[in-house]
From TrEMBL:
Cited PROSITE patterns: NUDIX, NUDIX_BOX
Entry keyword set: Hydrolase
Pfam families assigned to the protein according to its UniProt record, in alphabetical order: NUDIX (PF00293)
The protein's name in its UniProt record: NUDIX domain-containing protein
Biological source species: Lutimonas vermicola
Nudix hydrolase domain: residues covered: 4-139
Length: 143
């Protein structure tokens, strides 16, 4: 059997200034949105709640979910990056940030978190994720 796209979910967290949260990943040597693969039989909401808690100690409240989009974005992994997957196919969850919510890196996923204007997306290195992220922000109506 050939490689497939890993099913994943990404958070587009928007603050009161209409900025979105991205982070620098020392592991990937690039910026990215909070995101991650879905566990077997895990739904999108459970997946994004888990990922945000694992990566940022962020407790997502369901009433802060602005939208879960049907449209997905995908990006291929670099060659020989993963033994099972050729890339990720991401469902997008748009979230209204709570000012009292933690955004503290919890593992090697991120070492720096920043809020950026969506129009400034191109100013940061996302490696092979750039087109997918631009599509995601467009789907969210942010660019």
């Amino acid at each position: 059997m050939g490689k497939i796209y890993r099913q994943a979910v990404m958070a587009v967290i928007v603050n009161e200034e209409s900025k979105v949260l991205i982070g620098y990943s020392p592991r990937d040597k690039s910026y990215k949105f909070p995101q991650g693969g879905l566990d077997e039989e895990e739904d999108l909401i459970s997946g994004i709640v888990r990922e945000l808690k694992e990566e940022l100690n962020y407790n997502l409240l369901h009433d802060h979910i602005l939208e879960v989009y049907n449209e997905k974005v995908r990006y291929p992994f670099p060659p020989d990056c993963h033994p099972l997957y050729m890339g990720q196919e991401l469902s997008i969850v748009k979230i209204r940030h709570r000012q009292d919510a933690d955004t503290i890196p919890q593992d090697d996923e991120f070492d720096e978190l920043i809020w950026i204007h969506p129009k400034d997306l191109g100013s940061y290195n996302y490696e092979y994720r750039s087109d997918a992220y631009r599509q995601a922000l467009s789907i969210c109506g942010l660019i």
